[in-house]
Amino acid sequence: MNAFVNGPASQAGAAAPPSTGQSPAVRHAEDLSAVLKECHGIRADVHELASGNAIVSVRYGLLAYTDGESFWWTSPELNHADSPLLSSALTLHEAAAQLAEHHRILCAKDAADAVRNGLPLLADVIRAEHVDPR
Fold first, then answer.
1. Tens of pLDDT along 41-99?
2. Contact (Cβ atoms closer than 8 angstroms) between residue 32 and residue 93
3. pTM
4. What is the 3-state secondary structure (H, E, C) of the chain?
5. What does the pLDDT look like over 63-75, one tens digit per residue?
């Protein structure tokens, strides 16, 4: 049941917000996309996955995943073993700030570096989500 219906606001007689029909992950992803655009001037696309999660495609090689509660992505910065690092954030603004910095780092690199460094590509993620293993 919708948390707004049984929450304190409904007990005080306030109306519950209308349902958009979107999953929590897609709503969270769209919120991140909006913050990236409004606060950092970065346009990002939202894609719903078959798993119920959503992806915010920020740049070639920079995909932020969300389950509707938190965000995680592969950083373009490498660790001591020259492997990409997994980054995460719990809030929209924290995620947007970190992703904007990672966007800046990727803009300064050759796009082929993203592939060579093992960063995820949108087509690969979507294909993996929609492939029937049978």
1. 999 999 999 889 999 999 988 999 999 999 999 888 877 887 778 899 999 999 999 99
2. no
3. 0.71
4. CCHHHHCHHHHCCCCCCCCCCCCHHHHHHHHHHHHHHHHHCCCCEEEECCCCCEEEEEECCEEEEECCCCEEEEEEEECCCCCEEEEEECCHHHHHHHHHHHHHHHHCCCHHHHHHCCCCCHHHHHHHHHCCCC
5. 999 999 999 998 8
